[in-house]
């Protein structure tokens, strides 16, 4: 509405405006535009769980030697850890015993075969010797399978654990001399960091704005001048019980390895509404008495104070739901001086 001094006269005047002053007055036209919204969420880089393997030992033992450090790049099959275990020592002893027995039974079988060929041994006795060898070899196969689950047998109760996949060591708690067991935490974790997830925190108040498929821009303090572009691939339907937020997942290519797990990110989302509103530069707004006003130049040197209803901001643009019409000229420079003069004039006129 027009800022009125009384019910009949509006706060319009040209005489109070100095002509030299008018040269420094700048205006911009009101435009009809879709309201653009912007939301900034906090997020964190995390490993892609489909490309992470953590090693938990299947037996108890002591770390004998390590071949890696936190952050190292490793290849699949590369030795990472030697473990000494009394449980493995017992398996190794049983294996050695069975191997010795296998050699003995093999000699006995060869002798039985010779005696059978000379008709000195029955077929039943020959088959019994063959069954004995088959039984021993089956036991050896079982033990070898069991031992392969634990790692590569190095003898003397020591087994070597190899990298189950290629990637980077993102977690390590193995130190020489430390005790490990099936009940302990992961001894090490390997992650393929060629792709990572950025999980952004979405609060309940932001749900109407955030949706799957939205493009996002991300920044981090580690690279202040770089913008990472992505989109929301998945929006959780369940609140995180600890943080009381929904997680918006952004899957990012990380072939250059700039994004590191646990790195904090700022995630910016932009959108526009279907409704069109009057858009003006935010500099034109004047906040006074808990209300918003603008100064309108109706014609050269002819100004008017107008109260407006603010709908929202985006960057340096403000969206007005009422009080302005498309094409009107709002003052964006020296508007405060004009506003003060017109308001003072209005107060003085009200006293007459």
What does this structure look like?
This protein is an alpha+beta fold and 352 residues long. A hairpin with a 2-residue loop joins strand 21 (302-314) and strand 22 (317-322). It has four helices and 23 strands. It folds into four domains: 12-35 and 275-351, conserved putative lor/sdh protein from methanococcus maripaludis s2 fold, CATH 2.40.420; 39-50 and 192-273, Efflux pump adaptor protein, beta barrel domain (Elongation Factor Tu (Ef-tu), domain 3), CATH 2.40.30.170; 56-85 and 157-191, OB fold (Dihydrolipoamide Acetyltransferase, E2P) (Beta Barrel); 86-152. Helix 2 runs antiparallel to helix 3. Helices cover 23% and strands 42% of the residues. Strands 1, 3, 13, 14, 15, 16, 17, 18, 19, 20, 21 and 22 form a twelve-stranded antiparallel β-sheet that branches. The protein has a five-stranded antiparallel β-sheet with strand order 8-9-7-5-11, covered by helices on one side. It has a four-stranded antiparallel β-sheet with strand order 4-12-10-6, with no helix packed on it.
